[in-house]
Amino acid sequence: MLTGDDNAKVVLFGLKEHVAPLPAIIQIINGEAELTVGEEAVAGKPGTWIQMAAKTPHSIKATTPLVMLLKRP
């Protein structure tokens, strides 16, 4: 984590396949990416919104400069 408080956190991370212990939502804001969620490949583009259960394997590979939102409880 780069910085954070009770309301927000700023995190720099690599996007190789991993499993998060908490559920999460990914929303692509700008750019494009190849996403894999479980066994499903998804083309990420602006407006793509994915909700994942806890412990779901996932990865993101940006194919253009990418801005995304990651929301966790």
UniProtKB/TrEMBL annotation:
UniProt-listed CDD domains: cupin_HP0902-like (cd02230)
Highest taxon listed in the record's lineage: Bacteria
Family matches, as PANTHER family: SLR8022 PROTEIN (PTHR37694:SF1)
Protein name per Swiss-Prot or TrEMBL: Cupin domain protein
Classification lineage: Bacteria, Pseudomonadati, Planctomycetota, Planctomycetia, Pirellulales
